[in-house]
Amino acid sequence: MNRAPWIAFGVSLALAASWLGLVLVPQLQLGSEPMVVIEATGQDYPLARSGGAQAGAAVYRACGCAVCHTQQVRPAAEGGDLARGWGRRRTVARDYLRDEPPMLGSLRLGPDLANLGARETNNVTLLFKLYDARIATPGSTMPRFLWLFTKRRVPAGFAQSPEALPLPPAFAPPPGWEVVPTDDARALVAYLRSLQSAALFYEVFPPVKPRPATNGVAPVSATNTPPTR
Amino acid sequence: MKPPTEQSPAAGPRPPESTAPPAAEQFATPMWLVALTGLLCFWGAVYLDLNAGGFQALVFNRGDRPADVAARVPKSGTGDLVTHGRRIYGVYCAACHQPDGRGRPGQFPPLAGSEWVNAASPDRIIRVVLDGAAGPMTVRGQTFNNAMLLWRAQLSDEDIAAVLTFVRRNAEFHNTAGPVAPAQVKAIRDATQDRRANWTEAELLAVPVSE
Amino acid sequence: MASSNPPTLPPRATPDELDAAGRGPVLTLLVATVGWLVGAGALALIAAIKLHAPGFLADSAWLACGRVLPATANAFVFGFATQAGLGLALWLISRLGGAPLVGRGGIIVATCFWNLGLAIGVGGILLGDSTGLEGMELPRYATPILAVAGGVIVAWTAANFLARREPIRHVAEWYLLGALAAFPWLVATATLLTGFLPLRGVVAVATGAWFLQNLFTFWLGFLALAALFHFLPQLTGAPVPSRSLAVFGFWSLALCGGAAGLNRFHGGPFPAWMISVGVVASVLMLVPTLAVARNLFPLLRRHDRTRPPAPALTFFRASLAAFTLAGILGAANAGDAARHVTQFTLVTPALDQLTLWGFVGLAMLGVVHDLVPRLVGRAWPSARLARWHQRLAVAGVALLVVSLGVGGVVQGLALNQSALPFFAIVQRTVPFLGMATLANLILLTANCLLAVNLLRLLAQLGRERWAQFAKTWLTPLPEEVDP
Predict the structure, then answer these.
(1) C186, C205, C413: best mutation site toward chain A, by most A Cβ within 10 Å?
(2) What does the mean pLDDT of chain B come to?
(3) Which ipTM did the prediction report?
(4) Which of A2, A72, A220, C216 minimizes the number of CB atoms within 10 Å of its CB?
(5) More confident residue, B72 or B155
């Protein structure tokens, strides 16, 4: 134990073992995982994001939203995620193939966002949350993201811009002013609305429940090739 | 530099020694710790056996086994069904409907491009395969008057689902309909258990196939 | 000790020679350490306030909570803990090996670049350039600077290790050597796989978890254990009871410590085996934890009370307690039943802080406390400030961990009641977040006391040096005339 080369060698070996096991093997198992064709629509899952939503992912990353929000749903047996309505199934590795990088998060000071796009389809609601979450939820602790909005003067004699946020009176700027979301805010909202992980694969497939015979649509909304590994 | 003994003037004297005494050369590791290590290693092996899903990439739910995941696949994945269906088709169907699915004009109706095959729901053709069909039938504008055998006894739910999936999704037949699950076949088989007669066109048309 | 030297090695240098040789590089590292400590403390306080007071500094994008928190973590880990650890490694290797430090200029220059790279990186996170990978947030334009600068320092440290004049004799040296061997792996993985060869999908997250776990174990953990295994016997005057138990603890830590990382993503989108391996490794961490604790706690009991009281001992004692507690709580929290409650709650940061601040941070504060006076050759200017620093730092860490931990359990129990609206859960955590803010305020105060003490020490030293300089160089003429 008093020989330096053995200690260095042994520690390198221990480190190499965990590196091989927990970096390389996952890369071999999951790194080249193919997209899945959704049979009903012929699209690849996960769905490609629009340019705006991709820009929004960068805003999400830069603002560090993942510090307080997770994007992962646990299985029904662990915790109450599904019961809370945060998804219809647990999330699996395939759901994140388009995320660079996936921002899973590890703390829930805010609700989970893995299926926000399925819950929240109103841009204005989301913009309100970003501007001041207390509009919808008095007492919320979500920070304000004021730099995503421009407060500007409405020229005298003109109406408000159609883009201006229709803020309730208690939160509205003084008369003659309006609050307009920036491109970043709009991109972030597009990204948030693109968050969905609802397609079913057989990794997480619920047991096949035949539908009534008279309405025999195949119960498969997304299938993929059988496991070869 | 002042000599080291005078170096601690105001606040709290410095520790006098600069090197620690080396560890005692005592070769004792407590037995309880060794026992605990063995116990934890055993527990770890058992835990991994139960919860690691055979170290497979597709087992996500802890406690599942690879077989559990695989068991869900053939019912939903179409790859296996198509392979199996091609075999069934060759044995049971190709004699009449022909390997290319075009049938025989005036004798056996075509499956390629058939509106019966490509219906949104497979509910009608499942019935046809289970109990056969007889009497005049119109397929792609042509009327056929022949009888099809019933396969209820010969083909299992999986067989029928496979062959119908093969036919409905066959690109060579220019068919593009959705797959058929064994569960769907079973549901209809159970629902039509007491039927002892071939289907007629009129009976089949009474079965809804649009969503 | 010199009598036991094998004849082939040159005789060891005297402590004064060693301190004189190590003064430049080690002091540079330690002063930078204290700077980052105060900076990280200020950022941590801002982040802690923002977690429960959403209107606080809401106008500036660069102070967004989501940017300040990762910036804090990186400043703490790479500015404070890593630099203190490197200073400790250099000093301890020279001291135990008996050879004066070589490569002093190179180390000082590399230290400057390390701080430059880290300032760029932390600034980059604040400007919104974080990579988004937990544990590897530093942007890719900063990591190569850090990799090269850190590599140079570690290479010089290793060179000093090879130049030692005494055989390896101490447990602390094993841990130092292990940390030095692990550094290239860790840095290469973090640098290459975040910016230059990004991995796809969740594998990137798994790599981040691997890096974080191994950084905590093989780098920060090993350095802090080196400090404990050196200073506890030295300050108490009692030898480590069992050498074989130390061997056992060392290798079991090396084997189990690296695999526990993915436990952090319990229930996450990873194949079951990855999570399960993390669970088993976390539980197996009990073995090295108990082995180290069994070997070091007796030292505190056998403390030779006739020796002069050592101020730094408080830190090492608290650090040892935090290490033991972190291992036990980590194993307890690994189990499925506990995780179903604590996952995604404040328990995660509580345990992170227990390791990072409690175990590593307090050990490194002890290192600063002990080494700086030794290297400067004079005691801390104010013993009262030093005492208050100790008390406040230990109290702050304890309050931080307890408030986050209890808050996390409350939060987790509430999260699992699916009928309870989410907002009500957040409201329950607010008092605990407030206590965490108080803890951060205490820690910042404590570290400011340390900084003040250090600045006064350096000012004294500077004045003395200046007087010496003035005496010898600015008034040369009378000396030449007089004789």
Answers:
(1) C205
(2) 80
(3) 0.89
(4) A2
(5) B155
- Fold entry, domain A33-205: Cytochrome Bc1 Complex; Chain D, domain 2 (1.10.760)
Report yes or no: C201 at the B interface, CB cutoff 8 Å: no
pLDDT of residue C169: 81
Q: Which of B9, B13, B56 sits opposite C271 (nearest CB)?
A: B56
* pLDDT tens-digit readout, A132-148: 999 988 888 899 999 99
Rg (CA), chain C: 23
Q: Using a CB–CB cutoff of 8 Å, tell me whether A33 touches chain C.
A: yes
| Closest Cβ–Cβ partner in A9, A91, A137 for C423 | A137
Q: Which residues of C touch A144 (CB under 8 A)?
A: 54-55, 58
pTM of the model: 0.80
DSSP of C377-439, one letter per residue?
TS--S-HHHHHHHHHHHHHHHHHHHHHHHHHHHHHHHHHT-TTS-HHHHHHHHHHHHHHHHHH
Domain range list for chain B: 43-76, 78-205
From chain B residues 59-88, the ones with a CB under 8 A of any chain C CB are 59-64
Determine the 3-state secondary structure of C102 from DSSP.
Answer: coil
Three-class HEC string of C313-377 = HHHHHHHHHHHHHHHHHHHHHHCHHHHHHHCCCCHHHHHHHHHHHHHHHHHHHHHHHHHHHHHHC
B26 touches chain C (CB under 8 A): yes
Chain-wide mean pLDDT for chain A?
82
Instruction: Give me the residues of C, 6-25, that contact B with CB < 8 A.
Output: 15-16, 18, 20
What separation in angstroms does the CA of C224 have from each of C179, C331, C419? 10, 20, 45
- pLDDT average, residue stretch C135-144: 92
Test the A interface: residue of C200, C273, C341, C420 with most A CBs within 10 Å: C200
pLDDT digits (tens, 9 = 90+) for A41-52: 667 788 889 899
pLDDT in tens, B100-112: 888 888 889 999 8
Length of chain A (residues): 229
In degrees and rounded to multiples of 5, residue C313 shows phi and psi of -60, -35
What pLDDT, on a 0 to 100 scale, did the predictor assign at position B21?
64
Range B78-205 has CATH code 1.20.120.80: no
Amino acid A72: pLDDT? 93
Cis amide prior to B110 (ω within 30 degrees) = no
Contact C270 A31 (CB under 8 A): no
Distance from CA of A61 to the nearest CA of B (A): 27
| Domains with residue ranges and CATH for chain C | 13-451 (1.20.210.10)
Partner chains of A (3+ C-beta pairs under 8 Å): B, C
Q: What is the pLDDT of residue C376?
A: 86
Interface contact flag, A18 C182, Cβ < 8 Å: no
